[in-house]
């Protein structure tokens, strides 16, 4: 049995804890959080050991891995200590607040030879996997343009918030929402190398942006747009989509369906001229335990499997998480320049 | 329970196959009267149970029912709590304590006057009861013989292995509301084992049941085994697998499991309601 612990029991941490609890190859032996409310619930209702100090937990417990789901500004010291202890680490997104810290962690993970993963769960959604596969198979021919979008109703009123309303702690729509879209673009199409025309707009928040708009230029020269807004009440929950336009047509992909329009058929893929729609019902990755979406379990299964098989992940390595952090820095620099 | 339970996803822009269809639904059901019209059509077709989430707008539907007691005298609502996105978005924005402060009725410190925060952070049972009461407020005066907890919460508790929480929920629903507790889950076999382990026997469990195994975690084989061999009261949902199955195929499959007590489905047009209801009644006897 692979033994692990969770640091940070907010929305994601609790969800990871439940998924780990149901994982047949892993045992969650301890949890750590600053809130006595949450720790008391674990003390009362579960067998798991509770800690309020992650250092003490990492010192005392015989762990194989830790899962870190704290506010972003804590990622660096916590991941660093875990790596120094030789533990495998799953870290929530975004990976780090500064590129220099992120680079140090990537180097350290590499030196220690431990398995590492960042929580960009969209890569475990079957439709986005299918989009990547279709682009690699060049069904659209030469690419012309892309747009990466995400909308949702996180901040829909003016009020006092948590760490998510402080940019220096990794709050704001860019770190929280746009990072998902940037990461999808970087892994599915190509890595962004330049940002331009960036607009960071405040709608309700006092000190962070609620929307991110701008252009990204990728390493292969392709340009496209980023359009992300977490103050959009027309969406019931976060809705992320990628649209790619090529000389042979267009693909629109979100978490529930992938819509393909081709000017000319692509026989090797069995795709006709005109529209083809594929649904998540056919593309979902099967999981043994479901909470909020197959992707949340599938990413944990992948991490545990990497530890078991002793292989580094193809999805969401620290290095890939760092790449997203670098693009976030490019976007901020572009905005400040204006 | 009735054989046919009418669901509410179509009214609140929940569509597991398409965000675009979901938006079209949210436009169509902008006015509460549009929802009431469809419910009335379902009633005229002989459907007497509405299974719905504790969405704010359901409160308005309940107001309408209370104002027209004769029209709805035989009508039951099975509430499903909580409306998770409300809390999930609040936790992202306000944190866990902030969310409790926002949704526990009255002032938290007033509610738990004696011990203040120290008390609330230990007495989870009272906290749960307060939150249940807050969610149930909108249904006062309406028959709610079965009260469900939503899958996101059931499956969270299940994964955390905090099974005693189910026991406390079960006892409170029976005692305070004189109703049968129900559980919605995406992990039916694991949940039934968990409920049995804390002495909850023959529970009402609502889970995905469809021919292609969509959202049947752990695999379709173990679901079928449980449907054939175990003692519980299954309610089938997602029977059309988000539109991947035709109603005829879907209900024929359900017919293979006589234990299925009820089938939950949602539809927006009279002809769809009529067709699905009649298929369920033909295949699931």
TrEMBL record, chain A:
It comes from the Bacteria. GO terms for molecular function: nucleotide binding. Residues 3-120 form the Gfo/Idh/MocA-like oxidoreductase N-terminal domain. InterPro entries: Gfo/Idh/MocA-like_OxRdtase_N, Gfo/Idh/MocA_Oxidoreductases, GFO_IDH_MocA-like_dom, NAD(P)-bd_dom_sf. Residues 128-251 form the GFO/IDH/MocA-like oxidoreductase domain. This is Predicted dehydrogenase. Gene3D superfamilies: Dihydrodipicolinate Reductase, domain 2, NAD(P)-binding Rossmann-like Domain.
UniProtKB/TrEMBL annotation, chain B:
It comes from the Bacteria. It comes from Tangfeifania diversioriginum. This is Methylenetetrahydrofolate reductase (NAD(P)H).
